Amino acid sequence: MSSVMFNQQYGPWALIAGGSDGVGAAFAREVASRGVNLVLIGRRLGPLDDMSSELRSAHSGLQVRTVPVDLGDDNAIEKIKADTAELEIGCLIYNAGSETAYGDFLEHGWGFLRARLQRNFITEAALIHHFGRAMRLRRRGGIILMGSIAGLAGSPGFALYSASKAFVHNLAEGLWHEFKKDNVHLLCPIVGTVNTPTMVDAYGPLKGPASEPSFVARGAIERIGQGPLWIAQDIAAGVQALSAMAPSERSDYMAKSCAEFAGKS
C-alpha cells in the first residue's frame, strides 16, 4: 500500500500505546515512514521525548505528540481522551502490556494485579470503544491489538498476562467481523518472544530464538487489512504443537517454559 493510500485509510493521526521503545517504537517508525502523524503514549516522559525527537528529525513536517501516562491508572482513559480530543485518530495501536514480574498469582499483591487488569483489559477496551466509534462514523480506520503465543495456553507464573492475551485474541476476532462492514480494519498479531529493552531489563539477555521489534511492526502494518489474526511464521510450529496438547499437558509444559524464560527453573 502506498503512503498516500495508507494515509487515506489510517491517517491523519495514529495513536500508539506503549510507543516509546521496543515494538511500540518500531511501530512508530513504520507509521511515520508512511506520512501519518503520531501520538505516543508511555509511562516515562524521557523515552517519549527521545522517540519524538528521532521521528521529527527523520521525517520533515511530521507532527508528534507525547502523552506520559501509566495505562494501569484509573485516570489514564480520560487523560488520553482529553489530550487527543481535537485530533482525528485514524489508527490505534495498543502495544502496551508486556509482563515484567514473573510469579504465582497469589504471591502478587492485589494492587499490582488490579493495575494489570486495568491496563490489559479495561483501558484497552475503553480506547477501542472510544476511537473505534469515531472510525465507524468516518467509515475508515485501523486498529492493531498486540497478541502473544502466551494467549494460546495458560501460563503459570504469567497467568494473568496470558489470560489478557487470550482476551485480546477473542476480542479481535469478534470486533473484526463487527468493524469490517464500516471499513475499519482490525488485526491482532500473535508473536513469540521479542527482543525488547523491557524484556532484557526484566530477565537479562533472552535465551533462545526471539523476533526483532522491526519484524513484528513491519509485518503487522503490512497486514493490517488482512485480519483478524496474524500468526507470525516463526512461531507457527509452536502454535501447532500447543494446540495438539491436552490441557493438563499444555499447562505443565508452559510452567516449565515460563520458569526457564524467567530464569527460575
Task: Please explain how this structure is put together.
The protein has helices at 3-10, 22-32, 45-58, 76-83, 110-138, 159-180, 197-203, 213-222, 236-244, 247-261, and strands at residues 13-17, 37-42, 64-68, 89-94, 141-145, 147-148, 184-191, 229-231. It is α/β, with parallel strands linked by helices and 265 residues long. It has a single domain (3-261), classed as 3-Layer(aba) Sandwich (Rossmann fold). Strands 1, 2, 3, 4, 5, 6, 7 and 8 form an 8-stranded parallel beta sheet that branches. The longest helix has 29 residues, at 110-138. It is globular. The N and C termini lie far apart (46 Å).
Compute the number of strand runs.
8
Instruction: Give the helix proportion (percent range).
Output: 40-55%
Estimate what percentage of residues fall within beta strands.
15-25%
CATH architectural name: 3-Layer(aba) Sandwich
Radius of gyration: 18 Å
**Which quaternary structure do these chains form?**
single chain
Examine the coordinates and then state which fold CATH places here, giving the name of the CATH topology. Answer: Rossmann fold
Q: What's the order of the H and E elements? A: HEHEHEHEHEEHEHHEHH
Question: What is the count of structural domains?
Answer: 1
Number of helices: 10
Spatial separation of the terminal alpha carbons: 46 Å
CA-based shape: globular
Using the coordinates above, name the CATH class: Alpha Beta
CATH superfamily: NAD(P)-binding Rossmann-like Domain
In the predicted model, the low-confidence regions spanning at least 5 consecutive residues are none
Structural class: alpha/beta
Average pLDDT works out at: 95
Q: What composes the largest sheet?
A: 8 strands, parallel
